[in-house]
Design brief:
The chain is mainly α. It is built from 7 helices and no strands. Helix 1 (about 10-20) runs antiparallel to helix 2 (about 30-50), helix 1 runs parallel beside helix 3 and helix 2 (about 30-50) packs antiparallel against helix 3. It is elongated. It starts with 10 loop residues before the first helix and ends with a helix.
Length: about 150
């Protein structure tokens, strides 16, 4: 019992990983993306480690969040590319800052577009299947009773 440890909540780390998977390397400067890639790999390793502690999960989430915030957008991104990526502002006279472009690119990146799905926690809980199986068994028994009643009446 002394070797037991509480399983850390990895929800925040999972959300950050899903957000990070949608980022496109071509949209950011190579140096900042290389640092991000390292933080992403470390965070993914911690997420997949079933023996990871709460401190490790928290540290990995903070490191990945910091790396995402430090990503520097490529300077030659033209405004039409940003506007066509799903932004609601398409005015050519709108001179957004690089932080605005970064937020637009990040906000418009979707996990659905990449085809990724989120994983459910592996709890081993069979309650949902048990309820369905019980309902099916009850329906089958009612059908048998009704069938035999009708057969007796004829």
């Amino acid at each position: 019992m002394a070797g037991l440890q509480k399983i850390p909540d990895k929800t925040a780390l999972e959300e950050l990983l899903n957000k990070a998977e949608g980022l496109n390397e071509a949209d950011y400067e190579a140096e900042s993306f290389a640092a991000f890639r390292t933080a992403f790999a470390d965070a993914k390793a911690v997420y997949e480690d079933e023996q990871a502690t709460t401190a490790q999960v928290t540290a990995a989430a903070k490191e990945l969040e910091g790396a995402i915030s430090k990503l520097t957008p490529v300077k030659d991104t033209d405004e039409s590319t940003v506007a066509n990526s799903g932004s609601t502002t398409t005015s050519s006279d709108d001179k957004g800052t690089s932080a605005d472009k970064k937020d637009t690119n990040t906000a418009n990146t979707s996990n659905v577009a990449k085809g990724t799905t989120t994983k459910s926690a592996k709890t081993g809980d069979m309650a949902n299947m048990t309820a369905v199986a019980a309902m099916m068994l009850a329906a089958a028994m009612v059908s048998i009773v009704v069938y035999t009643k009708r057969k007796e009446d004829c």
